[in-house]
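User: Here's a structure from my thesis project, written as structure tokens. My advisor, Dr. K., wants to see whether a designed sequence matches the one we expressed. Can you design one independently, without my sequence as a hint?
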């Protein structure tokens, strides 16, 4: 400020002196006024240059200034640089925050005071069928047409979540999306979505499982209790007594098998994955399983089935011997139970060209219709419920096989043609098998 005052006084003094040199005191006053006006114009030009630079600041371009305006320019440039650094830092934090929300497994939608979409992450866009770019600015009510959602959105109570159908929901594959709104700011809303299809399905499966277990256990109990009551209260001859005791034994064995399979499933689901340290010869697994299968066939089928070993390779398998034996035995016993007496069953090990190894069981049974194949490994699912009752199956065998295969990094595969038979295969990855070269 002092420098500007000195510049003004110097300019006035010089023009006043010029007026005295060329005339009277009046000329001196006129010169002083002209000097002050000239200085004001020059100072105004400097101020204009600074204001123009401030309107469109360019830190690489310096306006022509002098005096106090240069100092003011330098200070302004420093303030602007600090502000730019703060803005860049804030933008970086905002980008990181949005990237974190974008990666979330939950959907996030920001709505303005009018209910228009301000921002939506990819998860919510996928769950509700939005376009994350084109639908910004659209009213949420125009995009989510569920009557339940509209009632919820227009209401005042957002304390609980609601469930609506997901985008592209079909009767064969329904999806459920949980939605909850959280008001914030000036009438803005944060809308969170969550895919609860799996949770709903698991809950339904749990209910079905409990109902099925209850039914399976309850079915033999009337038989047992009825025969016990008969033996306790009614005199029966030796023949009837042996008949009743045999039927009671059969039902008790059925309950025992059910409990045993349930315990097996529970153990498979709750135990660590088998390691890869122990190697088992495939013949040591196949031979005992075939012996058990032939014995079962001789008991429940007349004439017995023709059971053939059809291995195309001998392999070493890394895994849990008892689990693998259980899975193989379940496939073989299923083939015996569902193949008519006198039918043929082939089983063995073979290598695939991709390095995987397969244990396969082929039967000449009635086959399975295509619509049943996706559900075969569901617990207690039966293609023919009455047939399963006759053969004594628990409905858990294929669920056990699937779990064992998955625990060993493999998978259960099923191919079947109605009227021609079925092929069940446990496929194991190369990391779990080693082929033994023939001597």
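Assistant: Designed independently from the structure alone:
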């Amino acid at each position: 400020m002092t420098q500007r005052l000195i510049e003004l006084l110097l300019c006035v003094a010089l023009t006043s002196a010029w007026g005295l040199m060329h005339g009277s005191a009046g000329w001196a006053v006129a010169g002083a006024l002209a000097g002050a006006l000239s200085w004001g114009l020059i100072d105004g030009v400097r101020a204009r240059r600074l204001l123009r630079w401030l309107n469109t600041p360019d830190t690489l371009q310096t306006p022509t200034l002098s005096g106090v305006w240069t100092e003011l320019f330098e200070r302004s440039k420093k303030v602007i640089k600090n502000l730019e650094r703060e803005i860049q830092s804030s933008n970086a934090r905002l980008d990181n925050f949005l990237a974190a929300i974008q990666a979330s497994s939950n959907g996030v939608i920001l709505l303005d005071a009018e209910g228009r979409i301000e921002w939506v992450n990819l998860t919510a866009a996928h769950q509700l069928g939005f376009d994350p770019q084109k639908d910004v600015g659209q009213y949420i009510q125009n995009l989510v047409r569920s009557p339940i959602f509209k009632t919820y959105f227009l209401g005042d109570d957002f304390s609980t979540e609601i469930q609506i159908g997901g985008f592209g929901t079909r009767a064969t594959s329904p999806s459920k999306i949980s939605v909850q709104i959280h008001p914030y700011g000036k009438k803005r809303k944060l809308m969170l979505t969550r895919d609860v299809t799996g949770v709903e399905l698991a809950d339904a499966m749990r209910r079905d499982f409990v109902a099925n277990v209850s039914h399976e256990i309850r079915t033999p109990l009337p038989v047992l209790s009825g025969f016990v009551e008969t033996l306790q209260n009614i005199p029966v001859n030796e023949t009837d007594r042996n008949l009743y005791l045999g039927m009671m034994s059969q039902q008790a064995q059925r309950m025992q098998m059910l409990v045993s399979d349930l315990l097996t499933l529970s153990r498979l689901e709750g135990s660590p994955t088998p390691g890869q340290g122990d190697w088992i010869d495939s013949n040591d697994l196949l031979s005992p399983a075939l012996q058990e299968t032939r014995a079962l066939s001789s008991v429940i089928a007349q004439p017995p089935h023709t059971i053939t070993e059809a291995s195309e390779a001998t392999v070493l398998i890394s895994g849990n011997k008892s689990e693998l034996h259980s899975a193989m035995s379940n496939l073989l016993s299923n083939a015996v139970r569902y193949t008519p007496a006198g039918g043929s069953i082939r089983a063995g090990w073979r290598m695939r060209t991709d390095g995987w190894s397969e244990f396969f069981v082929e039967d000449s049974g009635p086959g399975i219709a295509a619509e049943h194949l996706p559900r075969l490994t569901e617990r207690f699912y039966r293609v023919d419920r009455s047939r399963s009752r006759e053969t004594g199956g628990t409905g858990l065998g294929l669920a056990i096989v699937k779990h064992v295969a998955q625990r060993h990094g493999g998978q259960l595969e099923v191919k079947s043609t109605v009227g021609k038979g079925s092929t069940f295969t446990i496929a194991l990855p190369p990391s779990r098998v080693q082929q033994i070269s023939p001597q």
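When you compare it with your expressed construct, this may help: The mean pLDDT is 80.
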